[in-house]
Amino acid sequence: MMPAAGAGAAPSAIRGEIYSFTRVMEAPAAFAGQAPYYLALVRLEDGALITAQLTDIDGKVCIGDPVEMVTRKLTTDGERGMIVYGYKFRPPVR
Amino acid sequence: MSEVCIIGLGMTRVGEHWARSIVELAEEAASLALEDAGRSAVDALILGNAYGGVYNQQTQLGALVAAQLRLHGVEAFTCEAGEAAGGVALRAGYLAVKSGAVQSALVIGVEKATDIVGAARVGARAASLDAEYEALQGASLTAMAGILMRRYMHEYGRALEDFAGFSVNAHRNGTKNPLAMYRNRLREGAFAKAPMLAEPVSLFDSAPDADGAAAVLLAASEHADDSARRPVEIRGSAAASDTLALQDRANPLHLKSAAKSTAAALKQAGIARDALDLLELHDAYTILTALSLEAMGFSAAGQGSAWAADGGERIALRGALPISTFGGLKSRGNPSGAAGIYQAAEAALQLRGAAGGNQVPNARTALIQSIGGLGATTVTHILSASA
Which residues of A touch B157 (CB under 8 A)? Predict the structure, then answer.
């Protein structure tokens, strides 16, 4: 059972658990410099699934692991290197 | 209403055609198909292509190829649905002939992947994912297949080795196909040790990007009788869609579009699933084959991978349900937008009894299935040998 939305101090929708994941070795051009990296489908506490990279990973990653959303640089765009920011997920920081 | 028949077919070798352009590949396949049918004119040219806009900076391939074939002024256009482009082109040709709007349609699938290489090509193929919610996060087609496969293994307690038989079977059949890209055998033990592309999807689990073109000439049955070869009838044709992003599906392990288009095509054909003699599936990744077999009703959820057991002997040419009879995308190669037309041409050879060393004994009815992305589009056709 997922906890009810809105409980606790942090907005519930930014926490979730890993539904499934992969470790990308052969990356698209815009992400080639970051490979290998983890890409996951995260089941948010409100039940929605979201596709995002995992970051700040030290040890083993498992389906069911809790994660929380953070803002990170995703890639750079174009010749002038405009930074594209977005969301990634990391193990919860205590 | 008249029936729609395949009266001619042609295919190029699948592989790396460094020295040839996308137009030349399409021209070769189309010329072979016209020659096979003993025809020189068509009412329409419909072309399937997935990535020409990015791989080759070329759109309007329909008109371009028509001019190359000197079919001046003929109706000609391109259909796109990611890697189901071949399937939707066949469907468009079928509808055009079935409606009576045209009497014949030349359907060509073509892809020239080797104009770009490496990470650039991986990025280009990611265009058939959801750009904002998947590709912008660093996803590739292979990565999303990896996510599906790991979830499947977790949910149903399957190991990587359980999928090996799909690739072993494809390569076993591909060794006999002179047009196949990789004609080597694959040892079952080598499968799980292959280099990873996106865990758990490995090199031996994923079909290779390739150049190639295939063509079929469709004609209304009353105009098919005078053709050079025995016509093959298209008895069922159906397409269905689903969300591009896996995250938007209630159950990512259920290929809804495959279930829906299969049921509709079988119903139209009036054929029971068990009466099918062979399947050509979109085996770009082994997980897609397992999920397709489940969506089509050949297995319960979680049991699709069981068809790969024992080196895939149940799906071999003389098995209970032959799959990938010319090597499938895995061994014949994956010329993305052309894959669906290779399936049609290969199935037609089976039903003509002209498949040589790849022949399925007594093949009367075949199902071919073309998938775009990870099931955002599925096109299913059922072909039968004419009486």
Answer: none
Size of interface A-B (CB pairs under 8 A): 101
**Per CATH, the architecture of B4-116+210-232 is what?**
3-Layer(aba) Sandwich (3.40)
Q: Is B148 on the interface with A (CB under 8 A)?
A: yes
Q: Which residues contact B216 (CB under 8 A, 6 or more apart)?
A: B6, B8, B9, B33, B90, B93, B106, B107, B341, B344, B345, B348
Contact B136 A84 (CB under 8 A): yes
Chain centroid offset of residue B383 CA = 14
pLDDT per residue of chain B (387 residues) written in tens, 0 to 9: 689 999 999 999 999 999 999 999 999 999 999 999 999 999 999 999 999 999 999 999 999 999 999 999 999 999 999 999 999 999 999 999 999 999 999 999 999 999 999 999 999 999 999 999 999 999 999 999 999 999 999 999 999 999 999 999 999 999 999 999 999 999 888 988 999 999 999 999 999 999 999 999 999 988 776 677 789 999 999 999 999 999 999 999 999 999 999 999 999 999 999 999 999 999 999 999 999 999 999 999 999 999 999 999 999 999 999 999 999 999 999 999 999 999 999 999 999 999 999 999 999 999 999 999 999 999 999 999 986
CATH topology of domain B123-207+235-385: Peroxisomal Thiolase; Chain A, domain 1 (3.40.47)
Pick from B199, B244, B249, B374 the residue to mutate for testing the A interface (most A CBs within 10 Å): B199
Task: Tell me which H or E stretch contains B336.
Answer: none
Both tokens of residue A5? 């939305």
Assigned token pair, B20: 């040839």
Residue of A19, A22, A30 lying closest to B198 (CB–CB): A22
Cβ of residue B150 closer than 8 Å to a chain A Cβ: yes
CA distance, residue A89 to nearest chain B CA (Å) = 11
Phi/psi at B345 (5° precision): -65, -40
Domain edges within chain B:
4-116+210-232, 123-207+235-385
> How far is B79 from chain A, CA to nearest CA, in Å?
25
**Cross-chain Cβ contact A22/B146 below 8 Å:** yes
Residue type at position A24: V
Determine contact: A86 vs chain B, CB below 8 A. Answer: yes
- Taking Cα atoms as reference points, which of B205, B204, B207, B226 lies closest to residue B217? B226
